[in-house]
């Protein structure tokens, strides 16, 4: 779980977290967790691949304010057995584990030279995706 540092600029006129900030925080956390599991920016550049999103959805449950103590927990919800398609779940949780928002992204990997989906995925991707933390209801799609 990653503790979030919120900024004044992250707030909307109602003094709670702006909707687009949830997506930005989740994107940053996704890149961090991929990096921790071997899918680094350097590996992506060296092997000419990168993540591509098809769908992103956030369910807002409770407001988050500037002084809220919020953690972001990121886990793999679904993945094809070859690692080519996946769904990642982000939970925005208070320090008392109350759910404030649930964000899902569905994606794949793109060959950055051919500009087509990467098939098969590079081995570094498969190993990294396999090692990501998984939800209790994780499934291979």
From TrEMBL:
SUPFAM superfamilies attached to this UniProt entry: Thioesterase/thiol ester dehydrase-isomerase
UniProt superkingdom: Bacteria
Pfam family, one: 4HBT_2
Name the record gives this protein: Thioesterase
Annotated source species: Olivibacter ginsenosidimutans
């Amino acid at each position: 779980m990653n503790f979030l540092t919120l900024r004044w600029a992250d707030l909307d006129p109602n003094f709670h977290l702006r909707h687009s900030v949830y997506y930005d925080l989740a994107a940053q956390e996704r890149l961090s967790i991929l990096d921790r599991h071997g899918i680094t920016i350097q590996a992506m550049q060296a092997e000419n691949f990168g993540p591509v999103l098809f769908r992103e959805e956030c369910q807002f449950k409770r407001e988050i304010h500037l002084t809220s103590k919020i953690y972001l927990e990121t886990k793999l919800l679904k993945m094809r057995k070859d690692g080519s398609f996946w769904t990642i779940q982000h939970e925005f949780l208070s320090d008392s584990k109350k759910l404030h928002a649930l964000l899902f992204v569905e994606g794949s990997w793109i060959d950055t030279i051919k500009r087509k989906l990467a098939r098969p995925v590079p081995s570094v991707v498969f190993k990294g995706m396999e090692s990501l933390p998984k939800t209790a209801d994780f499934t291979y799609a």
